[in-house]
Each structure stands twice: as structure tokens, then as C-alpha cells.
């Protein structure tokens, strides 16, 4: 018997939704998702963040992805990605908060670029992200993706940065520059969150692995670049078609995670109903694919077409799976 192709559906945040996503009307409109939730096998999982989850699904021996190397035109350059953030610290903890990108933030980053031009070049990328290409300094490569860090306590990661003295000094200089910047001081006086730090990530190294027999679907431009770096069959999510899944596939949908982290202003209910039509409705009709749903949570779901034969299993909805 031919082995079933495996589809790994990565939807971070699916099991961490607020209560307003579970109205009776919205549950009624997702019968195929509810079918999967009812019959799928619930398996313990330990994927603490987006990068760890992807590295395990790709079966590569690292915990962070080489985003910067995937984007850099010159692959021998040393780069790291960053997003402007508001860092709030007390005696015991530091929390990372998003900063809305506006004209003031762009002006501050342009001034930062000019001030540190001896140390690095800074270029804007899509999706509110910037690339810093370093001239002599070597960055810390252990930081999680911005979307995994925002809204979380990041004290352990800052402690790791402290162990790299030159990088730590550089980061302190950046924070001092940002704190003293006139536009940031004006934001403080207006009661707006200051852009008082940068969150850096994506500086891990590409080890040369090839994933040529893997379908890779993503609408995130950085993840698309990563898929291309590993030579996967990389396509946008709109190209997802269950009829062409003749070898393993990974679908990476960050839309819920971005909405939960304040990165986009989209209705969670609309996003889930969109996933119902795009993923769950066609997938529940397949007979030859093993489906694994990963939400970067304490458990994952595993489903195949034989499982609905257990008709006695209790009806479940998405609200039953929330952390």
C-alpha cells in the first residue's frame, strides 16, 4: 500500500483564541473544522514558538531559522532582522510590546541608520520589518521570531544577549539613541508608547539542507524566502490545492497569530471561516492524506479518513481546545 502524503498545517494561535471567537453562529459555520476537532487524535506536543515548530517540521537540527540569510542578496554578508518595539522593564521582568509603524517611527529609524552607518547598513523589508547588515559585529542568533516574542516576558533572552559583550554594548547604544531622540521624547509627552528598543531575530546560519520534495505554502514574505532558500516547492497559500499533494507539504498560516499580536486588524471569526473554506472543507473530503494540525501549543491534532468511523466520539468545537 502506498504511503499517505503528510500535510502539516501550522496555524499558530488556533488554540489561544479569546472568547469572542466562539459565538454559536461562528461555530455553526465551521462544520468541517468541527469534524476534524471531534475525530482527530490529540497528541502532546512541545513546540514553544514558531521557529522551533518549523525547524522540527522541516527536520533540521536547529531551533531558529536563517531569515536574514534567506533575504540577503549577498549570502556571505552578516545580517539580522529587526522590528521597532516598546520594551517595558521592572526589577524582575521585561515585556515586549508592539509599536504602530507611522511616519514618526520611520523618521527615527532613518536617523538611526545615519547615526550607526559606520557599524551597519539598514534597509526596509516588507511587512514592517528591517534588515541590519553588520560590517564587523557578530549578532546573537538565539532570539525567537518577533511574533513569538511580542506580548511575552523576554528576560531570559535578554540574559543571553548579555553574554555577548560587544553585541550587548551595541544594543545599549541603540537604546540610548532611541530614548534621547526628540520624536521619542515628544511621543512620551503625548502619552504614546516610545520606540525605545529594537527586537532582533533571524541571524541563524543556513546549514545547506535541501527540501526539494516538499510543498511549502505561505503568504509571509520572509517565510517564502526561507522556503526558497531550502529549495522547497514554494507557493502562496492561494495556490494550495489538495488534489496536487503527491508528496509532503507544510502550510504556514500566520494570519491568526498576527491578528492576536496586534499586527493586523482583522476579525478572528472571519479568519477562521476563511480557513474553513480553504483548508478544512477540502481536507475532510480526502482519503489519502495524513493531516497534522499544529498550533504551537501543548498538543497537536492528527487526522486521517478512517477516524470518523469512531462515530461515538463526543462532539467538539474550537472552544474545547483553548489553553
Query: H/E element string?
Result: EHHEHHEEHEEHHHHEEHEEHHEE
N-to-C CA distance? 38 Å
Strand content: 15-25%
Tally of alpha and pi helices: 12
Let me know the average pLDDT: 89
- Poorly predicted ranges: none
Count all strands and give the number.
12
Describe the structure.
By secondary structure, the chain is an alpha/beta fold. The protein is 34% helix and 20% strand. The chain has helices spanning 24-28, 31-39, 50-58, 67-71, 103-115, 146-149, 155-162, 165-180, 182-190, 221-229, 255-260, 268-283, and strands at 6-10, 41-44, 78-89, 94-98, 120-125, 129-134, 197-201, 215-218, 233-235, 249-252, 290-294, 299-303. Strand 3 and strand 4 form a beta hairpin. The longest helix is centred in the middle third of the chain and has 16 residues, at 165-180.
Amino acid at each position: 500500500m502506498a504511503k499517505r502524503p503528510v500535510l502539516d498545517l501550522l496555524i499558530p494561535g488556533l488554540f489561544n483564541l479569546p472568547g469572542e471567537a466562539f459565538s454559536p453562529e461562528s461555530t455553526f459555520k465551521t462544520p468541517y473544522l468541527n469534524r476534524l476537532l471531534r475525530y482527530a487524535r490529540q497528541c502532546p506536543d512541545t513546540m514553544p514558538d514558531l521557529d522551533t515548530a518549523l525547524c522540527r517540521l522541516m527536520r533540521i537540527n536547529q531551533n531558529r531559522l536563517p531569515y536574514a540569510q534567506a533575504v540577503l542578496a549577498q549570502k556571505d554578508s552578516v545580517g539580522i532582522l529587526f522590528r521597532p518595539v516598546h520594551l517595558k522593564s521592572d526589577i524582575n521582568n521585561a515585556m515586549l510590546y508592539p509599536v504602530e509603524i507611522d511616519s514618526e517611527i520611520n523618521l527615527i529609524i532613518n536617523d538611526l541608520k545615519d547615526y550607526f552607518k559606520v557599524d551597519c547598513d539598514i534597509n526596509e523589508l516588507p511587512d514592517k520589518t528591517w534588515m541590519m547588515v553588520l560590517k564587523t559585529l557578530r549578532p546573537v542568533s538565539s532570539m525567537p521570531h518577533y511574533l513569538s516574542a511580542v506580548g511575552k516576558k523576554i528576560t531570559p533572552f535578554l540574559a543571553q544577549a548579555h553574554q555577548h559583550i560587544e553585541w550587548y554594548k551595541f544594543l545599549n547604544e541603540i537604546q540610548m539613541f532611541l530614548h534621547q531622540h526628540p520624536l521619542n521624547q515628544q511621543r512620551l509627552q503625548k502619552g504614546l508608547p516610545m520606540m525605545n528598543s529594537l527586537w532582533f531575530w533571524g541571524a541563524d546560519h543556513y546549514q545547506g539542507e535541501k527540501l526539494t520534495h516538499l510543498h511549502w505554502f505561505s503568504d509571509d514574505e520572509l517565510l517564502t524566502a526561507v522556503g526558497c532558500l531550502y529549495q522547497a516547492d514554494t507557493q502562496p497559500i492561494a495556490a494550495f490545492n489538495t488534489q496536487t499533494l503527491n508528496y509532503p507539504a507544510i502550510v504556514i498560516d500566520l494570519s491568526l497569530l498576527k491578528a492576536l499580536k496586534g499586527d493586523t486588524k482583522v476579525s478572528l471569526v472571519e479568519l477562521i471561516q476563511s480557513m474553513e473554506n480553504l483548508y478544512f472543507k477540502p481536507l475532510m473530503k480526502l482519503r489519502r492524506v495524513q493531516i497534522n494540525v499544529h498550533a504551537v501549543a501543548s498538543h497537536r491534532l492528527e487526522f486521517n479518513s478512517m477516524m470518523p468511523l469512531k462515530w461515538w466520539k463526543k462532539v467538539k468545537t474550537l472552544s474545547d481546545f483553548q489553553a
